[in-house]
Design goal:
Blueprint lengths: L17 H4 L2 H8 L3 H13 L7 E5 L5 H9 L5 E6 L2 H14 L4 E4 L10 E7 L7 H14 E12 L5 H17 L4 H11 L8 H11 L3 E8 L2 E7 L1
Helix pairs in contact: 3-4, 6-9
Length: 235
């Protein structure tokens, strides 16, 4: 279903309710530059280290598109699990997993309080940016502690830049990108208003420092388009 959530006046701040869940896959593909390519890149990175029984945990797994794609490409049986705090998203995810006969565990959970234990790979695609900054910092510490010694954390985020002029230019470029994907000026403005003080991005440096402060020793960026970046952090 095509995303038309913001083609009418907004009545509330952005949330992952049924209206968003019903169009979420389309929203991601059209709103996040190179989203499909980034998903494939992360999957390829995981497959390069695939091993029987290896645990892959997806935070903010939404409709399970990422996990289903990973499931369809893995050569050995890994343990795939998705966490989400939106029942509407999980309902969609469960329907899709059943339709594809995919053995993927899904759980309604708050990632801030979830008990992370002996995780091998944790993925969070455009998820951390919706968590309040102080809680985000504490979450990364929990993730680090919950990963195995050779564990890996892969996350994608929208970022801001310290150079305010450059930041404004890149935002304008991003809005032109969205127009090219079929969104109107009105829809772009409506979503921007709905996301104000809901989506709070860090700079690239702040994301890297947050991981270092949590204990991660090796942090790299593996993809960037304007203000969208994918990071890999290893213990």
């Amino acid at each position: 279903m095509q995303d038309k959530v913001f083609n009418k006046p907004i009545e509330k701040k952005f949330e992952f309710d049924e209206a968003v869940a019903s169009v979420f896959d389309d929203m991601l593909s059209r709103s996040v530059p190179f989203y499909d390519e980034v998903r494939k890149l992360i999957i390829s990175l995981i497959l390069a280290e695939q091993k029987e029984g290896k645990k892959v945990l997806d935070l903010g797994s939404s409709t399970a598109k990422f996990l289903l794609d990973l499931h369809s490409k893995m050569d050995v049986k890994m343990q795939l699990k998705g966490l989400d705090n939106s029942q509407a998203m999980l309902n969609r995810a469960e329907q899709k997993c059943q339709a594809f006969g995919a053995n993927i565990e899904l759980e309604l959970a708050d990632m801030l309080t979830y008990d992370y234990q002996e995780e091998d790979i944790i993925v969070a695609n455009y998820t951390l940016q919706f968590i309040r900054p102080m809680q985000r910092v504490e979450l990364i510490k929990k993730l680090y502690q919950g990963l195995n010694e050779d564990g890996m954390f892969i996350f994608s985020e929208k970022v801001v830049f310290e150079d305010k002029k450059l930041d404004k230019e890149l935002i304008d470029i991003y809005y032109e990108y969205k127009k090219g994907q079929g969104y109107s000026d009105y829809e772009i403005a409506q979503k921007r208003e709905a996301l104000e003080n809901v989506l709070i991005p860090f700079t690239i440096k702040e994301n890297i420092q947050m991981c270092r402060d949590a204990g991660f020793k090796r942090i790299e960026t593996i993809f960037q388009w304007a203000n969208f970046v994918t990071f890999v952090a290893k213990k």
